[in-house]
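Box S1 | Example of a co-folding query
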Amino acid sequence: ASADPGSLRTPIVAVLGHVDHGKTSLLDKIRGSAVSEGEAGAITQHIGATAVPLDTVSSMAGELVMADDFDLPGLLFIDTPGHHSFSTLRARGGALADIAVLVVDVNDGFQPQTKEALDILQRTGTPFVVAANKIDTTPGWNPNPKAPVQETYEAQTDRARQRLDENLYEIIGQLSDSGFSADLYWRVQNFQNNIGVVPISAMTGEGVPDLLAVLMGLSQRYMKEEMEIDLTGPGKGTVLEVKDEKGFGATLDVVLYDGTVEEGDRIVVGGVEGPIVTEVRALLRPRALSEIRTEAEFERLDSVQAASGVKLAAPDLDDAMAGAPVRVVRGRHLEKVIDEVEAELSEIEVDTEDEGVVVKADTLGSLEAMANALREAEIPILRAEVGDVAPRDVAVASTANEDEHRVILGFNVDTLPDAERELDQQGVKLFGDDVIYQLVEDYESFIEERER
Ligand code: GTP
Ligand code: MG
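Box S1 (continued) | Returned holo structure for magnesium ion
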């Protein structure tokens, strides 16, 4: 017997992969809007969420998704820019996403961030499919816009088909080298043991019906039980971004994965100095099929149910951290909720030492990733925090005894103007980058230079 559709939450789908392999383009295609045109350059600066209702999935996927066969309400896609650590999408020590799409450029194959994403998917046990993107760039390709992949595949010349096959088998081989048994999705019988590879073009839409069908099918089949939650309970979510918004001050872009949040709810949010207790002044959301980060005009809502991307406006959010938990208190003891948020925050706390470098990062997840990379490189950390480089950080770094520790390593953060001046005056060196291994490498070469 099928459950009441109102009691099932939307599965959360993370879209990840190497820079420029086509994550945003895929979502653009799905949304039917050109979000990437509004982005700074070709690189996505931030992450956002896109809700696609079942009816829309069904109309895009044609015969491959019959709405009547499903009782999940649709799919909620989260885009992750290539340089943004996917580890931000965490929840309760695991992955925030229920399922993932790993986008791989068919011509480029596996690249560093493809491997990084695979590692995280493996570690968190997140089920995923591979979208082998840009099939339209196969030499001699004859595009059939929006067609299911087998249809367009059959319509190609032998030569074009062969070329595509070579690239696809290359990717299947690379997955196998990484320990994943994989095959073209229509040959996969058991998606729990095998990774399905879906050839697509985010440009022409070929294969996108198949991808949606596989995502809906997998969610319905393997995740339905997890989707049966108390949608009216106190909400739980993860902060994707802390953003200043005209008229609202600091706001939170949140992915709500459990329960409900209502205007006026008391919430607890992970902050730089520990849990922040505040009250929701406004719940803001772009219309379905649009995107948090480009929508200038928000719709104001009384309440929001999981799973959703929503913007929360509330006082005192300046110190809130991206990647941190958000919990609604409603009907529960405040102290208990604060404890829960503290417990989640302490999972991510970085081990620090009396002597070492100062680390700043844009999100809790990237801070964690930075700390791991530095531990592997045996570089000690004096202090590690989420946020832009502030004068306070320079003051802390300047207390180091060793010159090689009078250093701040900033991952994906800005430097406040006052801090800029302090750096010069205090003789503290700042390294900044949006690639973790590059930051570590730069710092290591700096030490080598000094030792020479
Ligand atoms: P980051 O957010 O920077 O990590 O990149 P991304 O993965 O979101 O890639 P994006 O969607 O911005 O695409 C990168 C480039 O590839 C753009 O110029 C797209 O137009 C192009 N592109 C993406 N998908 C396709 C495709 O299927 N076919 C072709 N021909 N070009 C594509
Ligand atoms: Mg992008």
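The chain is about 30% helix and 25% strand. Residues 17, 19-25, 36, 42-44, 81-82, 133-134, 136-137, 201-203 surround guanosine-5'-triphosphate (ligand 1) (CB under 6 Å).
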